[in-house]
Amino acid sequence: MNVVLGLGLFIVGAIVGFFANRTLFSSAQETQKLAAKASQSESELARYKLDVAEHLENSASLLEQMNSTCQVAMAQMAQSTQLLQQATPENIENMPFFSKETQEQLAQTVNLRHNKNLRKNDETASEPPLDYSGAPSGLFDDKKHSVTNS
Fold first, then answer.
1. Residue 18 pLDDT class (50, 70, 90 cuts)
2. Spatial contact of 98 and 106, defined as CB atoms under 8 Å apart
3. DSSP of 37-70
4. Which residue stretches of 1-150 are H helix?
5. How many Å apart are CA 56 and CA 64, to the nearest integer?
6. Based on the number of CB atoms within 10 Å of its own CB, is 14 exposed (0-12), middle (13-18) or buried (19 or more)?
7. What are phi and psi of 133, to 5 degrees?
8. Which residues lie closer than 8 Å to 136 by C-beta, 6 or more apart?
9. pLDDT tens digits, residue range 107-146?
10. Measured between alpha carbons, how far is 29 from 36 in angstroms, rounded to an integer?
11. Phi, psi (5° rounding) for residue 32?
12. CB 103 within 8 A of CB 96
């Protein structure tokens, strides 16, 4: 009887131990899964922080470029305004509309188009063109045509 009682207690202990181990081991697996998810979330957060920092750095450099471009444009506008304010009415009348190079090119073009030596002699026309000839024909003839409707 001692042996049967020992064997029965061993079987009952094995069954209780199996279920206790399974319950504790499943909670350990869940803990491992949650720890893996937490470390993955932390790595994603660190990557996101790096991306945001890089974006802000790029934005700052672009704004700096825009600022320098605006400064250059403002300096050019100030210079142009100063030149316009220095111009007097006498200077305005003497200012050419086109630049010197453009005026030279225009003068060359005019000389090429209107070369005085190559002009043809104007001939006086003694007869009107054929469009205005004296004998009417075709549609312009005043004859009445009969219209037949069937």
1. confident
2. yes
3. HHHHHHHHHHHHHHHHHHHHHHHHHHHHHHHHHH
4. 2-86, 89-94, 100-113
5. 12
6. exposed
7. -65, 160
8. 142
9. 888 887 765 555 555 555 666 666 666 666 666 666 666 6
10. 11
11. -65, -40
12. yes
Q: Is 4 helix (H, G, I), strand (E, B) or coil?
A: helix
Please give the single-letter amino acid code of residue 26: S
- Token pair, residue 117, equals 């030596």
Name 98's Cβ contacts closer than 8 Å, sequence gap at least 6: 106
pLDDT in tens, 64-91: 999 999 999 999 999 988 888 876 666 6
Secondary structure letter of residue 124 according to DSSP: P
Query: Which amino acid would we find at residue 12?
Result: V
CA distance 15 to 23: 12
Q: CB within 8 A of 142, min separation 6: which ones?
A: 136
